[in-house]
Amino acid sequence: MASERRLQLGAAASVTALLALAIGADALHAEPRRIVLCALLALAPAAMLWQCVRGLAMPRARMEAPAAMPAASRETLADAVQALEARLEHAPIALFGIDHASGDGALAPLNTSARRLLAPGRASAPEALRQLLAAQPAGQRQLVSFDTERGVERALVAVSALTLHGAAQRLVALMPVESELEAEALNAWRELVQVLTHEIMNSLTPVASLSRTACGLLDDAAAMLPGDIHADLATALDAIARRAASLVDFVASYRSLSTVPPAQPQRVALEAMFARLAALVAPGWQAMGGQVVFAVEPASLDAVIDAGQLEQALINLLKNAAEAATAAQIAHPQASVTARLSRGGRLRIEVADNGPGVPAALAAHIFTPFFSTRKQGRGIGLAMVRHLVHANGGTVRHARPVGAGARFLLTF
């Protein structure tokens, strides 16, 4: 402010000096030499006035026009913007935006995960999913479920309200949590099975042992007991021993859920592994009057996985398919196992059959331990499949079949 004040005083003094010289020159109009002298003397005040006016104008120009950004700063800012856009584009969370200023309030995908979710082959009803996400309240987190080609999936939705350039907008983030929820549920079931089998075995073991001991004592005392009483006691003790032994075997099968060794992944050629499986299960399907087909696309496809555990999971699925076809009296049962790379370069193995399929009301429970649709089933086959697949870092889903039968998708 002080420098601006000095410039203003200097300009005023210069103007005063110029006015004085102009008046003097007018008074001396009859003497040319003095007029020239006045003009020369006016050069100094004029120059001083120009400097003062220029000094007063420069701060105002700097206020009205911002300084140009250095080239290096512009490049740094552009790189930061591009890096931010790349991170958002490839974020593992599906991001959607709702611009209320546009009038329709339509929900639009903002990154690759969101566009992939709405693309054909993923969400069964993309428009219904759009409406579901658009209806979520701002500032809250909700767990939602929606149908996909791989079955029902659950995801966590968070909505934020913001204002950009004076327009109200909403940012919707959809985080898939199906795999995490399945892993937690599987761990909970494993712990429950471990506790139950431990307690049951602690009770069954002495019952089985005592029943065998009682049978031996009964034989030794056969001469001291009436024939009918001996026969009844022998029948009762034999029944106890048999049921105890059967329960021991039954519980031991469930104990396998909690005692599966950790996966030991190695690089495996899927075509060679499928050839071993075909040699193992194909004769059984041929004896039923059907066939099972294995395919790998491309033939050179391989994976880093525990081959033994994956083979066991596929055997369980094919065994369930064969038993379902037999129960439904399918004349020519068919099954196929196909391996290929899905979007994103993930391994996808599809197991399909032409059997009776899984009823829609039971589809959500088929992987639950102890659950079975067969009278003599133990409910361990599909539970073991899910356990083995999760142990290898994958997921298994019951997918909507293209035609008749059941269809399972294993993704790694």
From TrEMBL:
One MF annotation (Gene Ontology) recorded for this entry: ATP binding
Signal peptide: none
Protein name: histidine kinase
Family matches, as Gene3D superfamilies: Histidine kinase-like ATPase, C-terminal domain (3.30.565.10)
EC number: 2.7.13.3
Catalytic activity: ATP + protein L-histidine = ADP + protein N-phospho-L-histidine
InterPro entries for this protein: HATPase_C_sf, HATPase_dom, His_kinase_dom, Sig_transdc_His_kin-like_C
Key words of the record: ATP-binding, Kinase, Nucleotide-binding, Transferase, Two-component regulatory system
BP GO annotations: phosphorelay signal transduction system
Lineage: Bacteria, Pseudomonadati, Pseudomonadota, Betaproteobacteria, Burkholderiales
SUPFAM superfamilies noted in UniProt: ATPase domain of HSP90 chaperone/DNA topoisomerase II/histidine kinase
Domain Histidine kinase: 195-412
Name of the gene encoding the protein in the UniProt record: fixL_4
One Pfam family recorded for the sequence: HATPase_c
